Amino acid sequence: MYQHCPELVAAFVSRGYELIGHGHTNAKQQGTLSEEDERTLLTHCRQFIGHESGQLPSGWLSPWISESHLTPDLLLETGYRYTLNWNHDDQPTHLQTRNGKTLWSIPYPQEVNDIPMIVARQMDGKDFAQLIIDQFDEMREQSRQQPLVMGIALHPYLVGQPYRLRHLRRALRHIADIYHQGDIWFTTPGAICEHVDSLAVLRSDISTATPHI
Fold this sequence. Notes:
It is built from eight helices and four strands; from the N terminus they run ααβαβββααααα. It is mainly alpha-helical. A four-stranded mixed sheet has the order 1-2-4-3, sandwiched between helices.
């Protein structure tokens, strides 16, 4: 991205978007790398983004969502605070690493994602838009019992095609209209990580506090 269209990344930064590490190329799967090569990849991407855009990424999504058994450990050791590689729950969860510290897993969608839906399952644009609406409405109803995270994974070369884009707008308008009712948080995975990390610290402080009689 920085080599081929740096102006696009600059536009993201100027709008205040969060940048997340996603590897150097999708031509190689991260899970096949040696520990040394994987550490080099993670370190290089983090330092490069920090140098070029002035913000060190705290999150990581592996190319092809491929990771080794050591990826969570190496992520934490190279300065990342959360991973988007796991989609085992609709809530953030913490992963214990080999140094005893926590790496957060922030939910990343595999179903509400235009690559598996449109490419692999040949879903039409209007059906994908309805999928987003149905997912949102159901999760909003469930979130009355517990907070949930809903992500929408979009790739411009797919959903940005005009005949699909008009349907995506319909789905996003539906969410935006309900957003104004005040019970939804539009945010970034980094902000979610900060929030749940603060809650974990608070619980830890409470559990270790000495009771006063």
